[in-house]
Amino acid sequence: MRRSLKKMMAVGLTAAMTVGSISFQGLSVNAAGLPTTDGHNKYVNSEVFNVISDDSFGTKELENPLFDKTTGSSDISNLQVPTLAYDDTSIALVWDKPEKYDNVADYNVYVNGTLDGTARKNYEENAKWADTYMKSFYEYYETNSDVDMVNVDIHSYRATGLTPDTEYTFKVVAVDKDGKELGTAKEISQKTTVKPEEFNILDYGAVATEGYTSYNDEVNALVEKNTKAIQAAIDACTPGGKVVIPQAEDGKVFVSGALWLKSDITVELDGTLWASPNSDHFEIGFLMYPFYTDTRGWGLLNATSADENAPLENIRITGNGTLYGNGWKYGAGDKMYEDGYTSNAGVNTQAGDPSDTENYGLPRYMGGSNTKVYYYGIQAADSAKKYLTNLTNEDGSRKYSDELIDSLSGYIEKDLADNGKVDKNGKDKFIDVETGNNAGIEKADITNAYATRSSLLIMRNVSNVYVGDITVENPANHSVNILDSRNISTENVKVFSYDGNNGDGLGFGCSQNVICWNNFTDTGDDNLGFGASVGEGARDCNIQTNSEIWMFNNFLREGHGGLAAGSHTGNGIQDVLFEDTVMNHIDMAFRFKSAPTNGGFIANITMRDCAVADTNQAWVLTTSYSDPNSASTTEFAEIGKFYNFASYNVSVYGVQYNTVQVLADVDPVSNPQKPWHTHSHLYFQDITFGNVGTNGGFKNKNGWESLIGCENSVFYNFKTVSYAKKAVDKKTDKTWNNMQYCKDIVFQGTTWDSVNNCTDKMQNMMSGITVKDSTVKAEVVPAVTEPDSGSTGEETTVKAEWDAAAIAAATTTANGLTAHADANDANGGWKTATVAKADTTGEGAVWQVGTEYVVAGKTRAMDSDGKTQSKGTIPVSGCFLTYEAAEDGVLSIDQKTLATKRFYVVDSDGKVVVDYQNTNERDTAAKYETLTAQVQAGKTYYIYANGATANILKITFATKTAGTAAPTAVQAQTAKASDGRQVKLSWNAVENGAEEVFYGVDTYVNGEKVDITDGITGTETIMDRLSSGVTYTFKVYVSEKGDNANSMSVTGQNKTLLGEVTVTVDGEKDTADIEAPENVTSELASAVYTHAQGTWTAISLSDARIRGYKIYANGKLVNTVYNYQIPKFATAETVSKQIGRLTPGTENTVEIVAFTDAGVEYKYPQAQITTLGSYDYKAPVFAENAKVTAEVKDNDVVLTWTAATDDTAVGGYRVYVDGTPVVPEGKDFNPVNGDYTTAETTYTVTGLDLTKDHTFTIQAGDTWWKAAQTMGTYDKMAGFNWTVEGISTTLEAKHEEVKEGFVEEDGRLFWYENGVKQGTEGRGKEIYDPASDAWYWLDAEQGGTIAKSKDVYLATGDENEGKWVRYDENGHMVKGWDTTEAGTYYFDLITGEMAKNVVSVDGTDYRFNDITGIALNLEFVTEDGKNFWYEGGIKQGTEGRGKEIYDPESDAWYWLDAVQDGAVATAKDVYLDVDGGKWVRYDEAGHMVKGWDTTAKGIYYFDLITGAMAKGTVTIDGTSFTFDEITGIRQ
Predict the structure, then answer these.
(1) H or E stretch at 234
(2) What's the first-to-final CA gap in the chain, in angstroms?
(3) pLDDT (tens digit per residue) in 438-460
(4) DSSP-derived secondary structure for 256-323
(5) What is the pLDDT of residues 275-322, one digit of tens each?
(6) Other C-beta atoms within 10 Å of 851: how many?
């Protein structure tokens, strides 16, 4: 599929986010207001998801569970051969299990009508790692778990040993435990491929060596030679061919740099391809996404196309070999194994692992980080060092010396030696543990250097991919990264990367139609992951949605996530079926994550039929993810949303922290990047947990089940059967303890049977809040110019005062004030002290010498976990004060705050009343301030310092009254416009049983939400910062309070609309100018592509009417920021926000406009900034009518072509002649570098044979600034983009005066083809002349003229195969019989081959000399130990009884015995029908006997002339002898 087409299909799923709501452009919306997924629902059970996505889901109990494996059809479905999952000898099948599969034990598979095997038995053979670990898992947890582990179904098969280019028909049918077939078999046919042409890298010069972990000039030279040799094999591979990386002897490997694949190719990895330890051998410039600002190294194997119209296609990577990344040293955590280079495979095992560590033992690698990499890493360390080495100062000098860079590993080594772990150098800094000195490497440089690490297998923009059977081990970064691709199959891939940092297993980013089965992963990060880009850049680049993903029959071990979606969610992840998988020792089994600014969505996810053990968190859905290693800056998008999730039939044993955590991190007050949102429409059925809480104490969000921001969800048979001993001991053995900011949640079935359910919370969640009275009243506070004449004005009355001594003594409550301190505090808690000397550095009212003040103890105020220092939260331990307000009033605190430290007052609702910070730099001036806090009766206020010990002079509580003025229902305001107007809202309390409630108000103007107020505990509130003449709508919500465990000041659970009221503030519409402070500024910094950081002076302090700020970029409104989206807007002196939607590569003008609800505006001074040049991720484009012309000039070819166009600029062109690139000296072409043939649109090709046709192809490449220059902190390269297809033309051969066929020269005949004389090289050449219908030999010894009367040897195969032929006096090849003085010969009538040995001619066998080819005549030949006689090449004596012959050479007669097929008779009497008939005898040599002969039978006599046996009376030498007439024996 063309990339442009598939992107059009995906664009409908692009989400355009707006503040406060989510809208999806170009999409239909279902009843729940969520985008539909038409065209991306391949693996979604539509009947189930129609229910889940409905508005009413979670508002009432279900009539029946949504999943039922006990009913329905027993037929399998969706039988298919995944993309490219077949070759010349094998075919893989996968299928969906039946609707009814509770009784399915296995599947029978038939090949061409014959039972070939079963799925489970086949799994043992073709997924050995997954099968072995799976069996060991079940064996272990069958006896060591109180949970019945789900047995996964195996629904795949691989038929092997097949014949190439042959079609096979397969049938698959389910069977039960007794082998009985269930349902009707499904059928599919598939043809194997033809046997591919092979290109062995050894034939191109590749050399196997040891695996290098360091390098020098000699190693570099070898690696570069190997890289070129392997690349040459790839380049030479014909379409459909196979590049073979063989298994080397003695454990040797092939060390290589980056390799670049092409379309229509198979790479068969039988040996080990070992990544060079020198990161220079890997092109820098791989960007996960084109708008990324961090750059990584390309991989060991790469397949990439930047050509929008020409993705790479049809790539297989197979074999039983290994891609070895050489990324990290061997070890476990911070403990190195031996020297770090010796394999520790099988040394580290865990529960459920197989005992056969020799064959299935896993390696383990050091756990790296930004700083640890320099000691733990191999190639990972080299790339980081190279980055630091290349950094320069503004004057061009080196930023860091080699000595400093080489010393970094020592910082880690010393840290380890200090206490056995790295705890001082692990956070982007290098500290000498002995001296405490910092190495001086900037944090940004450390982060960026770490980002450069290479992955192992990278694919981008590829259609049709198969990766099978290979092992991927020890990557410096990710293992397999397949991006922006389509139709992907991964089968039986083994990944070993635990615990190498970022060692993700199989990753599919922005890819569609993925089938992933039978794999085994043991990773340092996510096992099976997918993402869809981040931020606004995802939409700018039109990146496709990540969808249509099917994963099953995998075994996942270790790593952070099992099934991991995100955190790159920018363009959406959907339509995922994850099933029949086993996971062991994984941090988060089902992990769905997004950062608050990544945007996008995750939707339509099914997880079913899985078994999990020893996990930190079983399910995690969070939009609060952050990557500590990220070196990229992107334009923010609105926070993402997760919805339509279905989980079914999963068993989990051993949970450390959370069975489920749904975290829609909501904190619009203190963190506007976390606006109100929820994860919704979640369904869990038949989920069983055992051994929950192995951590003992809560760690994540105060509960094993944490629902924070969850709506419209059902938990059906979601049951915990047991707790870990630690949980029991710590009394945390309870379920559903932590649910906040949720509503419309249903608990059903055995969910209620969990051990120690918090039943009251569950029931309360389901019951919701009932609002009986929706009345909301609004009173506009009148504005007056001055107090009435009879009034004495506002009066202040001090009710209580505590000096230093009183505060220190308030260990028991004194007038509502209590001093809290830990019993073991080093200073003994709160103590008085006296100012010993004047503070010359202080600001404000400096305390005088001798002044007594109180000092808090050394134990800081701490949060509930006992580890986190309180910072705007409610402390539970350490030193802090509390004040219990008995009446409304003002609490004044005279205190001193040291530089950079903070002072807080927080109320019992968790609302921050005072947040004061001394912004002076460290070790500079302290500030002396009197801080005031408005307090309300019935609330408790927590008073403490953060980052330092509290220093307090005194505390005062006072009340204010209106003097003698007559009381009014609503206190009048002054008429100063900048003070704004107020409205008092009131409502009746909502009764909610034992569950405490609180209230919130959303304020609307013209239908737009402009403010949020939360945490109201009473039934009235004052809404301020309003404008005269404006109509407001106030919506009041009621929520259950929750337990404040997460320190979020927002509306709590079961948020319900209480009522609303609309009111217009009296008076003319406000037009008074905004009162701005002096020296208002706006500034821009840190520009990237489409965004920069804006900072401007806040006006809310000087004008209370300010509602927010509009941001204009280049005259266009790009964002509106309301006060509630600004942390502590009321007291903030400046506002800092990312400003997006800037134009790349130009100077942008930004204008900030403050505004009121009445439309009054204040325009800030404009600010300008130049952004980075546009990110260019597309190859240049040739117009449809672009062409190449080729003109011959003086035997050269001058090419000219139409220029290409590009988003930035075309930097050069690559010229190919007949597919071979024209590469300048010292250059090397690959898909991402900038080397080219010419920068012009013309080029002259020389040295061509113009008597032949030639094809010329032109490719265009761009000059993206990032690929060639640097800017600011983003001092990293990116890849160039090249067209793949380009434009071409063919130059036909010259035909004038071209010699062809026989040409007579100097009386001799020569043969020409296309004007070239033939037969002049080597020994010569055989040719056929149709005109004479004869073959000829062109004799190189005679300059290529035809050979005459000559025998010639012609090679017909390898060096041991060939034939002798003869050319007669005319040069014609002789065929048939030929007699010369040497003898008679025979030449094959078709091939002309000279006969040798035995040849059949016209049905008669002839024997020819094995060497000379002469027909045998009157001579013996020994065959199989017997002698035979040939005449004229024909074997004699084979007919009748045989034949008598005379051999002149031995002067003897012989009998050729027909009984023995003509062999010479030996020791035999023969009757010859000659001379009237006679008996003769042949001796052991076969000679005819003559004269006397004695045997064991008697004495005989044979005539000396004829050899006839004597019989009767015979005279011999004058003596008469008598012989038997019959036997011939002498008497």
Answers:
(1) helix 217-236
(2) 107
(3) 899 998 889 888 988 999 999 99
(4) E--EE--SSEEEEE-SEEEE-S-GGGS-EEE-SSTT-S--EE--SEEEE---TT--EEEEEEESS-EE
(5) 999 999 998 888 888 777 777 889 999 999 999 889 999 999 999 999
(6) 12
